[in-house]
Design goal:
This is Amino acid permease. It is found in: Membrane. Keywords: Membrane, Transmembrane, Transmembrane helix, Transport. The protein is mainly alpha-helical and 510 residues long. The protein is built from 21 helices and two strands. It has a two-stranded antiparallel ribbon. The longest helix has 38 residues.
Length: 510
């Protein structure tokens, strides 16, 4: 999926295309954010949000019952390939429209008709998906922090109240970091890449070298169906959710494009490299965990199957140390997720698409970052996790909202790019003649995975096993639709242009 060099007829314009300020001004926006991210930093955002350690450890237990090792390993490979198609299609669009508005902005620009409506719904899907990602990652971190506490002090009781309280503290600290230590956040995003790479290496080598016994290679073809559904194919498809949940948030590179140097090239590279590196690292980690399983039934029935694997294979002492790596990865993931979430809110509010837009898109004169948007992201994430105070199915619902919201938001501009055909004006990073076939494959996968996440995940279906994702997503879309028809359709026409390139250049605040 390598980018093809710009055609010769575009050669004379390439210097202009790679001029970040000129590109932003041509789209009608003045520069308000500092460009402090280079290609590696842009890659680091999405790589950290995808976060194979966080994704695999938090959802591994579900996969043990929905397909088992066969789907955990080979499902990972299949989903990785499909997500690469999605990332490549998004990369082409990001190269053409490198703005913080990302998905909703490009949807408005690519639509032939009803640009305001396409942009509006894409933005709200992206918003709810990003909020779900921030909330789910914080909740997962709180769960594993408590698993660590139980290993240290067995008398500790895990309750919904304590999980919500710890998640709230995590969200608060991440919001404070994004408010007061912006340079530190950028540095932590760089560190997070090495934390993930070194962390995966340590966990894999520990599981490969310390235990005396491992599962045979044939064990990777072992199929398990504990979903309650008799149809094995349906159970296997449900197992793909483990990999799909992990591969979310790579639009973070797109949202950070206004803070990225040479964004028309660096942003799509950040998207593609984050997916490719995550696919390889995640496959190695998945195989290591699967091969280290001792008693399958006992492990699958435990409250935290990956932790059980570490304890059985390595002993409690080593397992505690590795669990610290897992918790650190989840905290890095949440921090990067909130940073990306904030930029989406900033851009959406900048175009007047949110209540109190003037408030949310304001930028701190000290840090040159949208501080108020940071606290909106933290507050909405807190609201999303509060039902965990009394419900045990909240995490699955939040994850589903995260995945469905984001992937539908990914799919809309890709679909509109297909409808535009040859009229689509490509950026310097593009796929040439493969652009449309890749986009078609991406849209097909997005439709399939989105439907899958909204179907029942276990049987019998009761109030404790019901998949609440369709209801949560439906409520958001209903509110967005009601607001659209009541008011926004008359006031919101899609991405706003603040003037000609020369006019917006004079508005630059940096």
């Amino acid at each position: 999926m390598t980018a093809i060099r710009p055609r010769k007829r575009h050669h004379d314009d390439r210097a202009v295309v790679l001029d970040d300020d000129a590109t932003l001004h041509a789209m009608g926006y003045p520069r308000k954010l500092t460009r402090r991210f280079r290609t590696f930093d842009n890659f680091a955002i999405s790589f950290t949000i995808i976060n194979v350690i966080s994704g695999i450890f938090s959802a591994f237990g579900y996969g043990m019952g929905a397909g088992g090792p066969l789907i955990l390993v080979f499902g990972w490979i299949g989903v990785s390939l499909m997500v690469l198609f999605v990332g490549a299609a998004m990369g082409e669009i990001a190269s053409a429209y490198p703005t913080s508005g990302a998905l909703y902005f490009s949807a408005g620009k690519l639509a032939k008709r009803h640009r305001g409506a396409w942009s509006w719904y894409t933005g709200w899907l992206n918003f709810v998906g990003q909020i779900g990602g921030t909330a789910a990652t914080g909740y997962a971190a709180a769960t594993f922090i408590q698993a660590f506490i139980v290993m240290q002090w067995p008398g500790y009781q895990v309750t919904g109240h304590r999980t919500v309280a710890i998640t709230t503290v995590i969200l608060l600290l991440q919001a404070l970091a994004n408010t007061y230590t912006v340079q530190l956040v950028a540095a932590l995003n760089r560190i997070s890449v090495w934390w993930l790479v070194i962390g995966v290496t340590i966990i894999v080598l520990s599981l490969a070298l310390i235990p005396t016994d491992h599962q045979s290679v044939d064990f990777s073809t072992h199929f398990v169906n504990n979903t309650g559904f008799s149809n094995a194919v349906y159970a296997a498809m449900l197992g793909l959710l483990v990999s799909s949940w992990t591969f979310t948030g790579f639009d973070g590179s797109f949202h950070m494009s206004e803070e990225t140097v040479k964004a028309t090239v660096s942003t799509p590279k950040g998207i593609m490299w984050s997916i490719a590196c995550s696919a390889i690292a995640g496959l190695i980690l998945m195989i290591a965990l699967v091969c280290a399983i001792r008693d399958y039934a006992t492990t699958a029935s435990s409250s935290a199957p990956p932790v059980r694997i570490l304890i059985d294979a390595l002993g409690a002492g080593t397992a505690r140390l590795l669990l610290l790596i897992v918790i650190g990865a989840m905290l890095f993931c949440g921090l990067a997720n909130m940073t990306s979430n904030t930029r989406q809110i900033f851009a959406f509010a900048r175009d007047g698409a949110m209540p109190g837009s003037r408030w949310w898109h304001s930028v701190s004169p000290r840090t040159r970052t949208p501080v108020k948007a940071v606290w909106l992201a933290a507050g909405c994430s807190f609201v999303l996790i509060t039902p965990a105070w009394w419900s045990h199915t909240v995490f699955a619902a939040i994850v589903s909202v995260n995945v469905v919201g984001l992937y539908l938001a990914y799919g809309v501009p890709i679909y509109l790019r297909l409808r535009l055909g040859d009229e689509f004006q490509r950026g310097p990073w593009h796929l040439g003649r493969w652009g449309r076939p890749v986009a078609r494959t991406a849209v097909a996968w997005i439709v399939f995975s989105s439907v899958l996440f909204m179907l029942p995940h276990s049987s019998p279906i009761t109030h404790t096993t019901f998949n609440y994702a369709p209801i949560a997503l439906g409520v958001v879309l209903l509110v967005a639709a009601a607001w659209w028809f009541a008011r926004a359709r008359r006031s919101f026409q899609g991405p706003v242009s603040y003037g000609s390139p020369d006019e917006v250049a004079a508005m630059d605040l940096i």
